């Protein structure tokens, strides 16, 4: 495996810095996590975007959140077809094995995946239309919702609305998983839809009664 290179120096330095400070100061806590295993109360599905930092905005420590990140925080529908389903596997493990009581889908502003979906739906991204585009085929999950925002003229507003539709789509698709639907029905699992404004540090939560995202 000659293509696997040593870690770059800046990361080696950062690691040793963490080991000498954060780890050393909290060694007991880390060892307890190792021996007792994880018992996170919440699962979070967020975007891979490096600016989205769910542990930071909730001040969460190791062991608190079971986190899955993918392009545009999308959950596909329940498709038990024997293929490779990374996102569905994380949901299954969180709900059936860990028994999380909260499942949070976190969308965000300026999402590149959502913008790609908009470009694709407007016919401006032929590269995403190709069968070989994993991003394009992944964003197909959200494609039907584009019609809901197609008439919005302001580009920023259009993207924000589709970002929020992505969260709602994920919640809807989560409910197609039988073990999620039954956990929600018996009250052992709550689903939550959030959207964060990166520049403003804002956080909005989907309110089912008013059918809108409201500031937290
Ligand atoms: Zn994103």
Describe the structure.
- The chain is of the alpha/beta class.
- It has ten helices and six strands, in the order H-H-E-H-E-H-E-H-H-H-H-H-H-E-E-E.
- It has helices at 9-25, 27-36, 54-57, 86-98, 112-121, 126-129, 134-139, 146-149, 155-174, 178-185; strands at 42-47, 65-70, 102-108, 190-197, 202-207, 212-215.
- The termini are far apart.
- The mean pLDDT is 97.
- Zinc ion (ZN) is lined by residues 47, 49, 72, 108, 111-113.
- Zinc ion (ZN) binds next to helix 5.
Topology:
Layout: H1 9-25, H2 27-36, E1 42-47, H3 54-57, E2 65-70, H4 86-98, E3 102-108, H5 112-121, H6 126-129, H7 134-139, H8 146-149, H9 155-174, H10 178-185, E4 190-197, E5 202-207, E6 212-215
Parallel strand pairs: 1-2, 1-3, 3-4
Antiparallel strand pairs: 4-5, 5-6
Question: Keywords, please?
Answer:
6-stranded mixed sheet; binds zinc ion; globular; 6 strands; 216 residues; alpha/beta
- Give the averaged pLDDT, no decimals: 97
The main pleated sheet reads as:
6 strands, mixed
**Helix-strand string:** HHEHEHEHHHHHHEEE
How much helicity do the residues have? 40-55%
User: Radius of gyration, Cα only, in angstroms?
Assistant: 19 Å
Which small-molecule ligands are present, each listed once? Answer: zinc ion
